[in-house]
Amino acid sequence: MPVPGPLDRIPLWLLLGIVIVLLVLAVEGGYRLGGYRLRRSEGEAGAHVLALVTTTMGLLALVLAFTFGFAATRFEARKHMVVDEANAIETTYLRAGLLPGDRGAKVRALLRDYVASRLEGVRLGNVEQAVRRSEELHRELWKEAETAGRDHPSSPVVALFIESLNRTIELHTTRVNVAIRSGIPGVLWAALFAVAILNLMAVGYHAGLVKTRRSPTVATLVMSLSVVMLLTADLDRPQEGALQVSQQALNDLRRTMGD
Question: Does residue 20 have a pLDDT over 80?
């Protein structure tokens, strides 16, 4: 079943608000600390601090790019998995029509139910129920394959059907692992938040140290970082947000099956 990550329990809109508040507080805290240091010590050079801020900005960009790339790679993998799974199911469906007796019609009915349950789970967002139903149908389909294999052990048609059914089941397992059980690690999220907060604190610290008034451009930096982090979280969530993997391949297959 799905294993939620540390941020998966937080809605995306709330996550955006939390990130904005944290980054604004980081800037303000750094600004006040810089003003305090300026009053207490005259020896700290603003140019030196600016060089350090520039370095930390590069580090933040690196961590952010790595995290975003991780999420984007998983998003692309989910897109390919939908197409691969649809192709495997279609192959199994076609080969089922060649099975001896009336077994082919029963297998095809199970496959139509299988596709319908997958699409229904995505539409309703009930992933756990869809996975359980898929596993039940796998067992029923495999029983039919076992029976066909025992009754016709030398049939090449049965062998091809079993091969394609095995491929369908394997792709289901892979898709569940890729889409649900392998999100961005919590330690990576923690590193991204820590680097972002420390970086914004450094920006505010430099502004306070050189007596720069609070610039509206800081709001641009805060919003830009918040939006990119939101998009990263959106890419990492298969069942939530604006960036959803299209199920068109399975919808087309369902129409082909005549359901």
Answer: yes
The verdict on pTM exceeding 0.90 is: no
Whole-angstrom Cα distance, residue 252 to residue 153? 34
pLDDT attached to residue 141: 93
Residue with structure tokens 């505010």? 204
CB 87 within 8 A of CB 115: no
pLDDT tens, position by position, 34-55: 877 777 766 566 677 778 888 8
Picking from 242, 231, 122, the residue whose alpha carbon sits closest to that of residue 180 is 122
Predicted local distance difference test score (pLDDT) of residue 2 = 46
Residue that has been written with the tokens 């394959």 in this structure: 145
For helices 248-257 and 103-124, give the axis angle rounded to 10 degrees. Answer: 150
Report d(CA 232, CA 192) in Å as an integer: 11
* Amino acid in position 24: V
Say how many CA atoms lie within 13 Å of 54 toward its Cβ: 6
**231: which 2 tokens?**
């998009």
